[in-house]
Amino acid sequence: MNVDSGTPFVPAAVSNPLGCRLVALTTVSPDFDASLRFYRDVLEMEVAADDVLGKEHEAPGLNETSRRYALLTGELSDTGAAVRILGIDPGAPANRPRPQSGPYDPGLLAMEGRTRDAALSFHRLASAGVKTISPPRYYFFRNAMGRESIDVMSYAAFGPGGEQIFLTARVRERGRDWPYSRLHAGFHNIAITSLDQRPVNEFYRSALCLGRTSQLECYQDNANELIGAPEGTYFLWGNLGHRVSIEVWEVAAAEGRRYPTSLARTGLAMATIQVNDVRACRAQCESNGVEIVATGALPLPDRPTPEGFYIRGAVGELLEIVQA
After folding, report:
1. Is 112 in contact with 157 (CB distance < 8 Å)?
2. At what angle do helices 278-287 and 197-208 cross, to 10 degrees?
3. What is the pLDDT of residues 206-249, one digit of tens each?
4. Which of 80, 104, 196, 228 is 20 to 30 A from 66, alpha carbon to alpha carbon?
5. Three-state SS sequence of 177-205
6. Residue 32 belongs to what H/E stretch?
7. Domain coordinates of the chain in residue numbers?
């Protein structure tokens, strides 16, 4: 008798033994002041630092030169991620050039933030001249695995560095149920696209001990219009680990171009993941053949010199791993 077997989903309780959490998103901007104004004045984030990096950092793409940086924080607390802006000279190439790239091209696609009201948020960004793909779009998913409904309105915008942003409002959280004082609360999630989720899932299992906890399917053209996908695009998506906020998408496309990220190129360049034991995590990577591409870490709002290292994911995403 022939027996087929697949990869099981992992219960949330055991899906994240290293306590992984997304704590920063790095965008590289050829107009540093415009990016600082965008996150501070339009998205209502607080500036925690505005300084210059020295030449001692080994992060891939820094090229041993001093770079201006800023750190900004939102109102999201234990699930939120800071935004780190790195300046770069005008004319630098893009991590994900537009309009030729799209969600069918593998790599780090977008960073996601929360807003109280997607329509008000869209109006605010449009009034500031921010480029968007479409007005807010409603979509609904029944997440049977998580026993909850996803009932939201979202839209996609582009920051001054070219980074793609999703801003999402949970429909049931409008008005008095919104727990924050501002229209925007900050960022909490990244989306990684692929044409085959299996090597991406395996990378995060090997490097960070993260298990795949959920999977949903999307065939809604509202969602396709939101992300800039052709009409009729079908994709699977779901989360890695419990309370980590890493989404992996598998897009049903015949081919796509991979866009590895670098701090020497503009736009969304890197995600920073905190672990409860960075040395154990590094040993986990080394034992599973995951290359350590550099050692160290860039400043974070609560720690100027975190202990950490850098790795590169299955579809080219640059990751900074730091000690909690």
Report:
1. no
2. 130
3. 999 999 999 988 889 999 999 999 999 999 999 999 989 999 99
4. 80
5. HCCCCCCEEEEEEEEEEECCHHHHHHHHH
6. helix 32-37
7. 21-323
